[in-house]
Structures are given as C-alpha cells and as structure tokens.
Design a protein that fits this description.
Blueprint (H helix, E strand, L loop, with lengths): L5 E5 L3 E2 L6 H19 L3 E9 L3 H10 L3 H19 L5 E4 L3 H16 L3 E11 L4 E3 L5 E2 L5 E2 L7 E10 L5 H10 L4 E2 L1 H12 L5 E2 L1 E2 L7 E2 L2 E6 L1 H6 L1 H4 L9 H6 L4 E5 L3 H14 L8 E4 L2 E3 L2 E2 L10 H8 L1 H11 L6 E3 L1 H30 L12 H23 L3 H22 L1 H7 L1 H22 L4 H10 L37 H4 L4
Parallel strand pairs: 1-3, 1-15, 2-3, 3-4, 10-16, 15-16, 17-19
Antiparallel strand pairs: 5-6, 5-9, 7-8, 9-11, 12-14, 13-14, 17-18
The chain binds 5'-O-[(L-methionyl)-sulphamoyl]adenosine (MSP).
5'-O-[(L-methionyl)-sulphamoyl]adenosine binds next to strand 2, helix 1, helix 7 and strand 15.
Length: about 525
C-alpha cells in the first residue's frame, strides 16, 4: 500500500457525569469515517477518543450519586468505551484523564508553561459555570427571572473566589491573531474562524488555571493545595496519547501536531484560543486544524434530560442498525451546521439512499447474475462508450470527488456524490434493461451485468468507512479478496474476475418498516 504519511485525528474527550447520547456519537462517528477513509487511502492513522474525568462537574455528579469520583468515572468511562463495539469505531487508543500516563503529561506541560514565565499566583473572583466548566465575564452573562446569572450556553453561573494560578493569556493575544492570519485553515468552517478571531480581537483576559476549593483533579506540581483547571488537564490528552512528555518518542515525533481536532461548536474557544496559547507558551507545535461541527436538536427541541428526549446510541442502533444510523447522522445535515433529528427523516433517508439505493441496485444485479449467469461473474464482451463512462465515473472519478470533499470535511457532500453514482447506475439498468437482453442478446446482458457488478464492487469499497459491516458483506458476496479492498484496488487492475462463483445474494441494507406498518402504536 502506498505510504502517504501519518494522519492524527481526535474526538473531544467526553465528560463522565452522564450517559452517552447521540451528540457524542455524532462527533466520534464523523472522526471514525475520516480515520477509516484515510487508512484505506494509504495513511498511517492514529485515531483517538476517550473520557474527561476530572473537575467539579464530575465530582458533583459523583456526590449526587453517592459514590466516590473514581468509582463513577470507572463506570461511566466504560459506557463510553463500550460504544466502540456498538458503533463500530476504529479508534486506536482510548484515553482516560485519570490514567497515570496522562497526569504526568499534564504536569510536565504545566511546568513548561511555568518555566516560560506565563504563570502567576493571585486571587480569583468571577463567574463560573460548572456545566460548561468555563469562566465567564460579567458582560457575557444575562439574568434569569429569579436573578441567577446565565451563561450564553444557558448554563447557570456561580460566583467563585479563591486563590489561583493564572495563565498570562493576555500576553498571547497578538501572537494568536498573527497565527490565525498566517493559518486561515486553522479553524473551520469559515464562520467559526471569524468568530474565534473576533473573540480574540475583543481582548483576552488572563485565565484562572487552578482551583483550591476541591481536589478532584491533577495536582499542580510543587503546590498540592491546587488542582489544575480541568480544561488544561483535558486538552493535554491529545498529546499524552502520542507519547508526551517524551517529545523524542517515535509516536510523538510522528503524530504531533495533530491533523484534526474535531469538536462541537460549544467547545471551540478552548481548542482554538486557549490550547494554541498553552502550546505556544510551552514551545510546542499547534494542531493543524480545529473543525467545529453543529449541534443536534430532537424533533425541533433541545436535547435534555428534563424534556425526556435524549436519544441513546443503543436505541438508534436497535431501531435502524449501526450502519444505517452512522450513515443517517452524516448524510442528513451539512457537516458544520446544526441539524434536527427526527425518526421520520431517518426512515426516509435510510430507505431512499441505502435500502432503495445501493441495497436495491446490488440485490437486483447480483440476483440477475446468480440466476442468469450460472452463479458466477459473467464474461463481458466489448464495452461501449456508455459502459466505459459509467465505469470511469465509479472509479477514479468517484474516489477523487469523495476524497476532495472529505479533505474539506464536507462529509455530507461526499456521501451525496456516492449516492449520485447509484442513481446513474440505476439509470443505466433501466436504459439497458438486462431482463430484456436475456432473451434478445444474452452476450450483451453479460456485459451489462459485469459492468454493474464492477460498479457495485467500487461502491462497496468506498462505502467501507461509512457503513463498514454492510460494505464488507457486499464485498464478501462479490468474493472480493480481503486484501484487495483499499482505495488503490478500485483500479481496473483489480477488477472482478469473470468466472468467480458468487453466493446466493442476500439484501445488505434492509428497508426500515415504519411503525404503522409494523402495527406499533395506534
Ligand atoms: N469534556 C469536554 C471536552 C474536552 S476535549 C479536550 C466536553 N465534553 S462533553 O461530553 O460535554 O461534550 C463532548 C462533545 O459532544 C462536544 O464536542 C459537544 O459539542 C458534543 N455534543 C454534546 N451534545 C451535542 C448535541 N446535542 N449535538 C451534537 N454534538 C453535541 O465538552
């Protein structure tokens, strides 16, 4: 396989105060698709996810549950880890911030920042939202009818006063602006880049970087009374997993700086402002790109426990199957925008694109081959220009368009392009009418079915990152060797061999039956 070099992609690490929901699944599925795509495209991939286990929010959740924080984090972290199996993630590591390797990394980063002269001790007095684990200035807040201070995210704030170490964030303002100007792709989409720039232009205040009122965190080196602010601890995870603090280790040299930190729009400031400032202060390289995706609402409402509309990944998988659920989340909404989840939209999309689209094309073609070509891949005759055009579009052309879209993180457009090929192939089936050719021109029928089988092989290969198990099943049915399923194998050289026996075809993407059809409900 060609070695195109390393590619390092990360998800945010998830707070362990609560159960996983589809918002969390969304970020990780998106990263999984990109990681799988890059692997098949010849990159050496490192794909990281994990859990963020320190801080007040987790500590309070443990108190509310009447268990100690370590017990809570062990349990909830495992729930997130179990998603790997459920959602078919291909992450290469799973990091927990309570691991020793991580605590050490966070402490060394702290010491580097300290040695650079960027820390000082003072008293902090200000507003803090535990839900966001974020500090806010007075002018960012609004008041609720009962006089509580509310952050822009809707989280309630409390007044905090304590002794703290501060990070000289203000000192980094100009260098950050210079960095954004030189790296216009650092934050995407463009609107988010503009948001970050205008936030920094508006002026940066020094950041309180430690807490003394509780102890569920990484200890500040040399001052046990303080634990680190949970965000400097959490952000460091991206380096821990590739070997930090050993900057000379093979993996750190290979994978740092990360290619993409994928985050939700709510945590952009931490990644695009604080994180590069910490790294610059410590003399480390800054990640290449931060991509902020949008948020899901559920049938028009914010997802929340109190509304009882939280969708658990397990429910989604139970209802649609893992591959269809993965596909739907990424196809439905332009990646970067907010989106609304509804079961009707999921059913429509899955049935149109997968069941009636790729699934039907494959099932029709393979059944005709099985029945009319002696259960084997037929021998094609000379290809005409229509055949050649379809093949060309399903091979290098499709790969190039999909690759370009994914490089720009237009995941939805990449999927749209794949489905376009399915429609073109459907049009070809209708125009060629192989069922008529069976009697009138059986030799031409064989050519048409061969061309279609080749298109399906290419579709199977390119769908692997999105719907891994179904794509594998499709490729298995066509008897495509396991070691000929990378993108380089889309090439003509690896085309299906006439005479290869195929199994009796089985549907790969089932149609979702609506509840009324199943007789559920009224
Ligand atoms: N622990 C921090 C991240 C630290 S990264 C160094 C955190 N955790 S979180 O569990 O609250 O959120 C993790 C991710 O889930 C965020 O990117 C957030 O945007 C995403 N989502 C949470 N709810 C969501 C939706 N309703 N929709 C889409 N994504 C959402 O923040």
């Amino acid at each position: 396989m060609p070695d195109k070099g390393p590619f390092y992609i990360t998800t945010p690490i998830y707070y362990v105060n609560d159960k996983p929901h589809i918002g969390h699944t969304y970020t990780t599925v998106a990263c999984d698709v990109l990681a799988r795509f890059k692997r098949l495209d010849g990159y050496e991939v490192m794909f990281l996810t994990g859990t963020d286990e320190h801080g007040l929010k987790v500590m309070q959740a443990a108190e509310a549950a009447g268990v100690d924080p370590q017990a809570l984090t062990d349990k909830v972290s495992q729930n997130f880890r179990d998603l790997t199996l459920l959602m078919n993630y291909s992450n290469d590591d799973f990091i927990r911030t309570t691991e020793e390797r991580h605590k050490k990394a966070a402490q060394v980063l702290w010491q580097k920042i300290d040695a650079a002269g960027d820390l000082y001790q003072d008293n902090y007095g200000g507003w803090y939202a535990v839900r966001d684990e974020a500090y806010y200035t007075e002018d960012e807040l609004t008041s609720s009818p009962d006089g509580k201070k509310i952050a822009p995210s809707g989280a309630e704030c409390e007044w905090v006063e304590e002794e703290s170490y501060f990070f000289k964030l203000s000192k980094w303002q100009d260098r950050l602006l210079e960095f954004y100007d030189k790296n216009p792709d650092f934050v995407a989409p463009q609107t988010r880049y503009n948001e970050v720039k205008s936030f920094v232009k508006g002026g940066l205040k020094d950041l309180s970087l430690s807490r003394t009122k509780f102890d569920w965190g990484v200890k500040v080196p040399g001052d046990d009374k303080h634990v680190m602010y949970v965000w400097i601890d959490a952000l460091t995870n991206y380096m821990t997993a590739v070997g930090y603090p050993d900057e000379e280790s093979e993996s750190f040299k290979k994978f740092w700086p990360a290619d993409i930190h994928m985050v939700g729009k709510d945590i952009l400031r931490f990644h695009a402002v604080y994180w590069p400032a910490f790294l610059m202060s410590a003399g480390l390289e800054v990640p290449k790109k931060i991509f902020a995706h949008g948020w899901w609402t559920i049938e028009g409402e914010k997802m929340s426990k109190s509304l009882g509309n939280v969708i658990a990944p397990h429910d989604l998988v139970k209802r649609y199957g893992v591959d269809a659920a993965r596909y739907f989340m990424l196809r439905e909404v332009p990646f970067g925008n907010d989106g609304d989840f509804s079961h009707q939209a999921a059913i429509n999309r899955i049935n149109a694109d997968l069941a009636n689209g790729i699934g039907n094309l494959a099932q029709r073609t393979l059944s005709m081959i099985y029945k009319n070509c002696d259960e084997q891949i037929p021998q094609p005759n000379e290809l005409d220009s229509v055949d050649m055009k379809l093949l060309l579009n399903s091979k290098e052309n499709m790969l190039t368009v999909v690759r370009n879209n994914l490089d720009e993180l237009k995941i939805h457009s990449a999927l749209e392009e794949i489905i376009k090929i399915v429609s073109v192939a459907d049009g070809y089936v209708d125009a060629q009418a192989p069922w008529t050719l069976r009697k009138e021109d059986p030799e031409r029928m064989k050519t048409v079915l061969y061309v279609l089988a080749e298109v399906i092989r290419c579709l199977g290969i390119i769908m692997q990152p999105i719907t891994p198990a179904s794509a594998d099943k499709l490729l298995d049915q066509l008897k495509v060797p396991k070691d000929e399923r990378n993108f380089e194998h889309i090439d003509e050289k690896y085309a299906l061999k006439p005479g290869t026996k195929i199994d009796k075809p089985e549907g790969v993407f089932p149609r979702i039956v609506e509840e009324e059809e199943r007789g559920v409900g009224t």
